[in-house]
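ok trying this again, last paste got cut off
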Amino acid sequence: MDVQTGLTLLLSVIALLIALVIPAKTFRYALQQDELRRLWDRRADLYVDLLTEAMAEQKWFEWDIADDDGRERMAISYTDLRLPPLERARLSARANIFGSPTVNRAFNGVQSAMGKATLLSRPKDEGERAVARFAVGKAFDALQDQVRKEMGTDKLAPTKEAQGIR
């Protein structure tokens, strides 16, 4: 075999390797990006569901700690929006799979704050109810702040069209 044939054969082997390796690596990278995007979308949906449930539980908590006169006034417009037990368990399972430990801790912190306020009995006067509302509101704000931080929603600059400015 002469030098020219050997060089041609070597270049052909290199071209064949490039033709096989580059598309395989590109496909693997695209697959990884697709999996990350799917996980991001699942996490975003989960966080919306967690915030919705926490808000519904916060409204229920307001109903639970209200005095009898307050409940009568609230009865006209109050609707219990909390999830049924099976759906609540599914939400917790999804949170354990797709949610971050920090968001899960913050979500459980909302329930913990409600439990601490009503552990022994319902608050008896407006001062105790205000303290309980403050603790639950603070826990909810911590959950909301952590979700906003993880999802990067504060980094998104609103466009002029979204603001209605021309």
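PB: full thing came through this time. The radius of gyration is 27 Å.
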